[in-house]
C-alpha cells in the first residue's frame, strides 16, 4: 500500500498544479455568462478531483498510522487544501469579475467602506467592524476596497482553518483527531456566503479562534475580551450567538466565577454598543412589534410565495442543492449525539466540557433560526436557511466522532457522505442555474457603463428596472452618501408616481396613468434569468426582450456590452 500511497500523493500534486495553471489560462465571454462554472470547466473538474484525492490520502494517513512518520507530507497536503479552497472562494475575481453580488448587499458593504475612507466616520453603518477592517487594509496597502473584497474571503478561509486546528486541539490532543477534524472542515458551509464579505459570515469564520481563547480563558482572558468587543461591532447576531456559547459554558463549567466575570464584561460591551447605534435599536423595536403583531408576515410566508411561483418540485430541488452540504453537517452532529448517548466511553474519551457545549450551542442556534423562519420576518428565505453559524463547530465534533467509530462500514459511509458534501458544496458555492440563480457578478466594463448612465441622466426623469438596482452600483462607485441615491430606487419619481415594469412589458395598461418619460435599464442578466433559468415563472420571454427594443414607446439611449438604457415615452404609447 505504501507504493500506491506515494503514487497517489504524486498524482494529487500534479492535479493540484494543473488546476492552478488551468485557472491562469481561463478565458470566457463574461458579458454573456449566466453560469460562473462555465468560465473554466477544467479548473472545477480538476479541483474536485484534487480535493477528493486529498481527503482519501488523509483518511489513509489516519487508518494506516503514517501520521507519526510523515509530518512534512501531512503539512504539504493540508496546505494544498487551504490554497485550493482560498482560490475557489476568490475565483470570481481571478476570472476577471470586478464585483460580486451587485444586485445585493455586497456592493453596499464596499460603499460603506468608502464612506469611512471619504468622510472618516461611520454614520449609520450597521456593521462598522467590516468597514473599518477593509479601510485600514486599504490605507496601509494603497489598495482599492473593491480589490480587497476579492482577496478577503480567501484570507478568512485561512483564518477559519487556523482556528479550527487550535479548537480541535482543545477537544483532544491527538493528531488523528486533528486530521479527522480538518477533513470535515473541507466542505464550504452556508452556500454562497464564503465568497462574500458579508459581516455575518466573516464574523462567523473567526468563531473557532474566539472560542479557543474562551476555552483557554485563564491564559487568554484579555485576548478573549478584545475578541468579544470586536465581534459585537462586527455583527449583532454573531455576538448574540456567542452569548449562547457563554451561557452554555456557565451551565456546564466548574469554573463559574471566571466565566461569569467575562459574561458581565461582554454584556456591558454589547449593551453599550447597542444603544449607541440607534438604527439597531430601531430594528430591535421593529423586531418586537413583529413578534407581537397578529397579522405579521413571516419568512415562512415569503418562502411559500417562492414555492407558488417556481412550483413545489422546482422549489424542493433548489432547497436540496442549497442545503445538501449543510444537511450532511446536520446529520453528522445528530448521529454523533446519538452515538454519545449510547457509548459511555465516547464521553469519557473527551476529557473536557467543550463537546457538550457544542451540542447545546448547536441546539440553541437551531431553535433561534427556526423561530426567525416560522414566527417573524427574519430574513429572505434563501439566506435564513443558510444562517446556522453553529455548523462551524461540526468539524471539531466530527473529528472526535470519526476516530471513535470501530465499524468499517460505518467509517466508509461517513467518508462517502463527506465526499458528496464536498462535491456539492463546491457547485453551490456560487450562484448558478443549479440553484436557480444566474451569475450575479459584474465586470469593470459594466460598472463603468452604469457610472456613465448615472452621471449623464436627467434628474427629473426616474428609473425603472427589473433586477439591476442602480443604487447598489452607486453605493459601490460613490459610497452610500451619494446625494442622488434616493432617485435611483425603483418607483422613485419627482411627481410621486411609481412605475414597476409589468409582465411581458405590457406598457399599454399604463397609458392613462403616465404621460411623462422614464428611464429603463435592461442587462443580459435579466435576459438570461427569465429566458433560461426562471422561464417557468412566465414573467418575460425572449420575444418580450426583442420587442421592447423596437417598441414605439421606447428609445435606446445607450448600449455597451450587456447593458442597454431605454427612454420610455408614455405619450407615444
From TrEMBL:
Q: Tell me what organism the protein belongs to.
A: Methanosuratincola subterraneus
Q: What is this protein called?
A: Glycosyltransferase RgtA/B/C/D-like domain-containing protein
Q: Output the superkingdom of the source species.
A: Archaea
The answer to keyword Transcription applying to this record is: no
Q: What is the lineage of its organism?
A: Archaea, Thermoproteota, Methanosuratincolia, Candidatus Methanomethylicales, Candidatus Methanomethylicaceae
Q: Which UniProt keywords apply?
A: Membrane, Transmembrane, Transmembrane helix
Q: Which stretches are transmembrane?
A: 7-26, 42-62, 74-100, 150-171, 177-197, 233-252, 259-280, 318-339, 359-380, 386-405, 412-430
